[in-house]
Amino acid sequence: MKIPEKVINFTCYVNGSNELAGMVDLTLPKIEHMVETISGAGIAGEIESITPGHISAMTFSVNFRSLVDKNISLIKPESYAFEVKGALQETDSKTQKVEVKKLTVALRGFPKSAELGKLAVSKPTDTNGEFTCEYLKVDIGGKTTVEIDKLNMVFLVDGKDYLAEVRAALGK
Predict the structure, then answer these.
(1) Radius of gyration over alpha carbons of the chain, in Å?
(2) Domain total for the chain?
(3) pTM attached to this predicted model
(4) Per-residue pLDDT tens for 102-115?
């Protein structure tokens, strides 16, 4: 059995460049299915019915230690492609050998807000930026586990695209 432990380290590329300076961490999006409350004859009360493949608005955020002009320029109202390449640490419970698994996360979105942080002597500014997220893809160990492409109606989890039939019904 593999015991997942932590992210060893990662690099973040924005539009193909890894020039972000002073990056501390990145908060990935929350995936929340859109629901509609249903009630009526034959239902004892109410149920929340999900709409497969339809996800509420997603956001992700990037946190920095300090104010840096290249990072602040991410507030331009443009689409940004973020790609995170990381190494995950696992331990094999039988051999107790530490293993490294490749992680790639791709995100696309527009700047939603920027918090420049605070100024204090000998302290980081805790600058951050929040972005909309119209596209998310997570590859773990070379396998795509999740791909959400809202503008092209793709909702893929573990190799199954839950919107394929919907696209076909729409003639796409």
Answers:
(1) 20
(2) 1
(3) 0.92
(4) 999 999 999 999 99
Bridge partners, residue 7, by sequence: 88
Range of the domain at 124: 23-74+103-169
Residue 150 DSSP class:
G
Q: Under a CB-based contact definition with an 8 Å cutoff, are residues 29 and 101 in contact?
A: no
Counting as low any pLDDT under 70, the low residues of the chain are none
CA atoms within 13 A on the CB side of 62: 31
Structure tokens at 137: 């893809």
pLDDT score of 22: 80
The first and second tokens of residue 157, run together, are 């989890």
Task: Report if residue 145 sits inside a domain.
Answer: yes
Q: Quick one: pLDDT at residue 21?
A: 73
Question: Would 5 be classed as within a structural domain?
Answer: no
Tell me how far apart the alpha carbons of residues 110 and 76 are, in angstroms, rounded to a whole number: 9
User: Can you spell out the DSSP letters for 55-95?
Assistant: E--EEEEEEESS--HHHHGGGSSS-EEEEEEEEEEEEETTT
Residue 141's pLDDT is 96
Residue 95 counted as domain residue: no
Q: Distances from the Cα of 6 to the Cαs of 28, 85, 98, 122, in angstroms?
A: 15, 14, 11, 30
Two tokens, residue 152: 């092209």
Residue 71: predicted pLDDT: 83
